[in-house]
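Task: sequence design from structure.
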């Protein structure tokens, strides 16, 4: 199972998180977020972790610029991006992974995920919130029993240390990764390395 740590803002903290061996490092390029990232590729450390840029209804030119500026390996789309929008990004960036976030409030939210089957690589199910992520709140995970699509998915939204045993034993065949953010912070944008380390060791029975 993959681990993505999102909402990183500080170079020294990013380096510490990367040393934990996480699979994805997430940087939020949405100016209304408390975790808005202003770092350039020269500051973001080069690691084995994949770099993910998180965008909310950004223009294609803006996303393209940040992909190049920060040498992103993946992009996460957290707004109302259309299929045609995602296909345009795919055409320009064939080697970049595309993660489409789905804001979950009820069963109908799960059904809308199917429209992205042909254009995204992964889905990310997050708690519906006006904050566009980082709310610290969980949605009803049993709703994902209704998801029978083709795309693997990340689960996000209020995940904390105590959830590690539950996630470790969860056997949904398309669960690909876990997205960690606000419940692992000392303040917005700064991650608690001890909490992350405890979660990872519990998840992998280390």
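Answer:
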């Amino acid at each position: 199972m993959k681990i993505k740590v999102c909402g990183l803002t500080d170079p020294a903290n990013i380096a510490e998180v990367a040393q934990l061996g996480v699979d994805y490092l997430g940087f939020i390029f949405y100016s209304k977020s408390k975790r808005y990232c202003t770092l350039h590729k020269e500051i973001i450390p080069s690691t084995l972790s994949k770099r993910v840029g998180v965008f909310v209804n950004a223009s294609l030119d803006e996303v393209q610029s940040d992909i190049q500026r920060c040498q992103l390996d993946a992009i996460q789309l957290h707004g109302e991006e259309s299929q045609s929008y995602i296909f345009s990004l795919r055409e320009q960036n064939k080697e970049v992974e595309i993660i489409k976030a789905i804001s979950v409030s009820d069963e109908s939210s799960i059904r809308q995920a199917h429209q992205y089957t042909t254009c995204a690589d992964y889905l990310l199910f997050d708690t519906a919130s006006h904050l566009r992520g980082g709310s610290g709140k969980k949605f009803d995970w049993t709703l994902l029993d209704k998801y029978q699509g083709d795309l693997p998915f990340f689960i996000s939204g209020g995940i904390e240390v105590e959830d590690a045993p539950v996630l470790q034993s969860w056997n949904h065949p398309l669960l690909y990764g876990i997205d960690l953010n606000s419940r692992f912070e000392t303040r917005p944008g700064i991650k608690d390395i001890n909490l992350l380390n405890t979660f990872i060791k519990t998840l992998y029975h280390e």
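The chain has one domain: 2-203.
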